[in-house]
Automatic annotation (TrEMBL):
This is Alpha/beta hydrolase. It comes from the Bacteria. It comes from Candidatus Macondimonas diazotrophica. InterPro entries: AB_hydrolase_fold (IPR029058).
């Protein structure tokens, strides 16, 4: 655990009980640090921790909206919200893929807390990769659920998404993006991730298979997909999520194109409803007898 304020991303909710964390359940994190936010009336035990994980930009101002985080804290089933940010060996915003996957594995197999994990863009890919490793190792994922916003899979991008990368690397646009991020690692992160992917990790071989039925039979973690009206994942990629990961499509779409969520207020209630579906299901699993009695 760390109480240091030396991390890149500032604490947003000074009026709440908030602190930096560099561990998960006492195990040191390698590729992230967390900003833990809780309220006094949040259930200290038995509640569900929600971890919200940024996309590849991981901007210094945060990736998710204030109203979304506050809405989660208002939920009676939520114990705390953890804003995850990339950090490796003291470098805020630096993505080390093996370290990131190590941390996600800890969260996906936490039998005690069973967190709800919310990913955006790049982190939907790393969450899927980590989930694949857990299931392939014969382990049962121990999460309340996963919400994947603007889902992404390498090799399944739309033509528009593929065309955007060279545009982002133009010098003027590059400088604007780096200023938005507040750290210098975005494009280096992308290049290192491409090199890792080119090396042929197990998840890449899995995605290249034509039959996902065997994996799907063992993948029982509840997963919801929330898309933007104009998004970056191809039709084949969308079908793959449903076939291989038993993912369910959230009925609402976020207006506009795939972009940052921090100030996109239209997205906040949509994401809260997607999370609420998981939290309600978890409550039913925990207290089925009492709920049945009430309904009768």
């Amino acid at each position: 655990m760390s109480e240091s304020s030396a991390h890149l991303h500032p604490i947003r909710f000074e009026s709440e009980s908030t602190r930096y964390r560099t561990d998960w359940n006492g195990v040191p994190l390698r590729g992230h640090y967390l900003i833990e936010t809780r309220r006094k009336n949040n259930p200290p035990q038995g509640g569900v921790p929600v971890v919200i994980i940024p996309g590849g930009f991981d901007p210094v101002r945060g990736s998710f909206g204030d109203a979304f985080i506050q809405g989660l804290l208002d939920h009676p089933s939520v114990s705390a919200v953890y804003e995850a940010h990339y950090e490796h060996q003291g470098r805020g915003g630096y993505v080390d893929i093996d370290s990131v996957l190590h941390d996600l594995h800890l969260m996906l197999t936490d039998q005690e807390q069973r967190p709800l994990l919310v990913g955006m863009s790049l982190s939907t890919f790393t969450l899927s990769c980590a989930l694949h490793a857990v299931v392939s190792a014969g382990q049962a994922p121990a999460v309340t659920g996963l919400v994947l916003v603007g889902p992404y899979l390498a090799g399944y991008e739309t033509l528009l998404a593929k065309a955007l990368e060279p545009f982002y690397r133009r010098e003027k646009m590059r400088q604007r993006i780096l200023k938005h991020c507040g750290h210098p690692y975005l494009f280096d992160n992308t290049d290192r991730l491409k090199a890792w992917w080119k090396g042929g990790p197990a998840f890449r071989h899995f995605l290249q298979k034509a039959n996902f039925a065997e994996f799907a039979a063992h993948q029982h973690a509840s997963m919801k997909l929330v898309y933007f009206r104009l998004d970056t994942l191809s039709r084949r990629g969308r079908l793959l999520f449903q076939r291989a990961f038993n993912a369910h499509l959230h009925p609402e779409v976020i207006p506009g194109h795939h972009r940052a969520l921090r100030y996109l207020t239209e997205a906040d209630p949509i994401l809260l409803r997607a999370c609420d579906a998981h939290l309600r299901a978890q409550a039913l699993d925990r207290f089925p007898a009492s709920l049945t009695t009430v309904s009768e």
